[in-house]
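Lay summary. Proteins are chains of building blocks that fold into shapes, and those shapes determine what they do. In this project we predict the shape from the chain. Here is one chain we studied, written as its sequence of building blocks.
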Amino acid sequence: MKISTPQRFEGSLPEAFAHATSKREPVFVPTQHFTDDRGWSLMNQLQGVMSEQGQVNFSVQYPGVIKAWHRHHKQTDFWMGLVGHLKVGVYDQDNDHAWSIVIGEKRPGTVIIPPPLWHGAATVGPTQAGLLYYVTHAYDPANPDEDRTTPDAFPGFPWHVEHK
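And here is the predicted shape, written in a compact code that computers can read:
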């Protein structure tokens, strides 16, 4: 038996998919990290092979980070915590109603967040947290489908750990 390393493919994922199926061999398509002082993300995963509009991403948040608030007008988010734990906040500004749930390693599942609800996440605990998410519309930097505001924009939402 001959064992090889899959070919590294530098083109787009749809091109790599076509190459792999036509050659009937696996290919490896490298990706790049997006990094800032809040954590790191792997963006646009499986773009062009799942659906023409959707996008899969994986984002890591460092301890103590709050990424909030933002909302979309077209896009629905599907969030799944895979590493560590995140407190997810969702807010309906029209009805002044908020939801909070901790997701992650010890609470697996998917949070579905439709538009136009405000949403965000705070890392819970001393370790980084990883979020795998599917969005129904890929991010368009020329015309972003999002509004943003600060973590304290909606007074009373408990981003901190609630000691009970």
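What the prediction tells us: The first strand starts at residue 7 and ends at 8.
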